[in-house]
Amino acid sequence: MTANQRLSGGTGYALERIEIFKGLEASEIERLSQRMNWRNYQAQQQIIGHQDASTDVYFMVSGTVRVILFSSAGKEVAFRDISAGECFGEFAAIDGAPRSANVIALTDVMIGSVPAETFRTILQEYPAVSMAMLTYITRLVRSLSERIFEFSTLAVKNRIHSELLRLARDHIGDDNTARISPAPTHADIASRISTHREAVTRELNDLTKNGLIKRDGRTLIVSDVIELERMVHEVAGD
């Protein structure tokens, strides 16, 4: 399927994967799916450009995208990665302002989208979706507030620990280990915490020597998530 082809079927099933629609009946999800424009994007393809006037809202069915900005010197600053089940673009749909960042596909992705007017109509027609959207935005604001606090109070190595902990929590198993796959590159981590790749390399090497992390092919393994949490919370408390 090319980037401009629409899905020929199964759109209701695809939309069931979106977090804010999970409280709806199957019939309601099928009706919503008929309002969607479905599209595939290839890895490294830009979906949204910074300061664009577009206002569509996008719903991630598969793959991962990254929200980024570039400084005047060309430095990449990564805000967050968005994976299947999440959405993006809702800010411009709500306030009509230009896009606040670029969104780039990290992998091949499948996305459903609706114009801003349709999105606002959906929020009015489905109170459960509206409440889920409010919860989603609140969670996002809390996460970004936490990162701002870290930038203001933590040394670089402690910011690295915090970022690793965020990643580990999304992949933690029953045995207190986390397998993060694919492992983020050192440059990826650096762009998320406003530092340089060399600093990340040094700290990850130290954590490897101490046995807290190790690599297994393209997977990064955190061997003791509780200990990583203790390190982060100890510094935060100080």
UniProtKB/TrEMBL annotation:
Could you tell me the superkingdom of the organism this chain comes from? Answer: Bacteria
Q: Name one GO cellular component term.
A: cytosol
GO MF terms here are: DNA binding; DNA-binding transcription factor activity
Sorted alphabetically, which InterPro entries does this protein's record hold? cNMP-bd_dom, cNMP-bd_dom_sf, Env_Response_Regulators, HTH_CRP, RmlC-like_jellyroll, WH-like_DNA-bd_sf, WH_DNA-bd_sf
Domain HTH crp-type residues, every copy? 154-226
A Pfam family reported for this protein in Swiss-Prot or TrEMBL: cNMP_binding
What is the name of the protein in this document?
A: Crp/Fnr family transcriptional regulator
Where do the Cyclic nucleotide-binding domain residues begin and end? 20-123
This protein's record includes keyword Plastid: no
Tell me yes or no: is Phosphoprotein among this UniProt entry's keywords: no
Membrane spanning segments where? none
The UniProt keyword set, sorted, is: DNA-binding, Transcription, Transcription regulation
